[in-house]
Structure formats: structure tokens, C-alpha cells
Write a structure and sequence with these properties.
alpha+beta; SH3 type barrels; single chain; five-stranded antiparallel β-sheet
Length: 73
């Protein structure tokens, strides 16, 4: 399942990434394999989304979120 498919309040664990270049950027921001991610908010038009990871809130575009593959929690 992709992070972009989660609804507000749902959680998942980072499993892998589909985009190598984007994965480096995301890992620098704390989205490491094995970390739990929770969707906090989704903008009214669906983009961007606010997630909670590694103890802080991060905003991602849907395109960026779609590169994160999760294991459903």
C-alpha cells in the first residue's frame, strides 16, 4: 500500500521506496524503513498531506507520498 492511499488517522510502517532520488530526500527527513507513519491531515483538495513521522509533522505532496510503500499497521 502507498502512503498516498491512507486516510486521516491511519498508520503504516515504511517498507520501501519506488523512487531512488526521492527516497534519499525522504530518508533525510526521517522516513526510514521500519518507521511508523500516521496521516494527520489532508488538504481540502487532496494535496498536500500532513504526516507524523519520527516525532514531528511533515507535509508531502501526493506525488512524493506515492513513492513510499507501507506495510499496513
Amino acid at each position: 500500500m502507498k502512503l498516498s492511499q491512507l486516510e486521516v488517522g491511519q498508520k503504516g510502517i515504511v517498507k520501501e521506496f519506488t523512487d531512488l532520488e526521492m527516497s534519499v530526500k525522504l530518508m533525510e527527513m526521517g522516513c526510514l524503513p521500519g518507521e511508523e507513519i500516521q496521516v494527520d491531515r489532508i488538504a481540502p483538495l487532496g494535496d498536500p498531506i500532513a504526516i507524523r513521522v519520527s516525532g514531528y509533522q511533515l507535509s508531502l505532496r501526493k506525488l512524493e507520498a506515492s513513492t513510499i510503500i507501507l506495510q499496513k499497521n
